Give the backbone structure.
Amino acid sequence: MRAALIFLLAGPCAAATLEAPRTDFKVEVVETSTAPGRTDYLLRFPSAAKSPWPANDTVWAHLAVPDSAKGRRGAAVLVLPVMAAPNVWIETRFVDRFVQDGLVTMWIEMPTQFRRRPHPSMPSGQVFLARSTGQLARNFRQSVSDARRAFGVLAARPEVDSGRVALFGISLGAIVGSVAWSVDPRPAAGVFVMGGADFPGIAVNGSLSGPFVRKMDLKGDVLRAAWKGLDPLDYTASNAGKKALLINVNSDTVIPRANALRLKEAFPDSRQVWLPLGHYSSILHLVWLPRWVSRRLQEALVLKQ
């Protein structure tokens, strides 16, 4: 997967645009199951964009409705996962906590993840790291568009108050979520864990991608031209007043501190919390962090009643 980063930054790409989400599509309920205190649904609907791979053009959404939310319209949260992980073990810690605390919660399989893999033999999410800047930008744009479409699906549920729906993302899911909120006025709150802004800067200076970028002598100005319109920094003025909660870790080398601070710059009224440990060792915070984040979300969404 690291080798793929060599290729994802090469090649020209036109500036990206992020169109308003459409609503003229069908949402299917594929499966329904129950567990103590909740009902779970597996939904599917068409992606907001077309890719080279038919399997990737269906979004699979995992919806959990707490029993306490039935028969009323309450707060909800859309969860955007880590992109290239083989499972959603980390995200599930947050999903279960949110549901336990009464939030209708949905997470989606992002482009090239899980059921959306171009081929069953391919690791989940790996094709996202495309071999050209153009395809990477298209993959990322599809991710943002799918997140916006999924937000609308969640907001339209009978159990959900459409004015009290939040975004939550981790790592690349946090980057996708921060762009989605930058171009979409509907979210009432956003929590982004280990995210950052200035993606070309992350590519050049991140511990995974930086050595390859330097070896290939790729220039930051070329990367920035390719990524125009796909970064929350492009929307700083319209992000004023959006009180995002940014959670970063002190020793993160995958998302360098400078890029985490740039995400704070992109959301001028956000609150940024710094925790110890690094990008991977921060898994230890799962002992307490889901409960703490859930409380912050409830505080933000209750204010919207």
About this structure: Confidence is low (pLDDT under 50) at residues 1-16. The two ends are 44 Å apart (CA to CA).
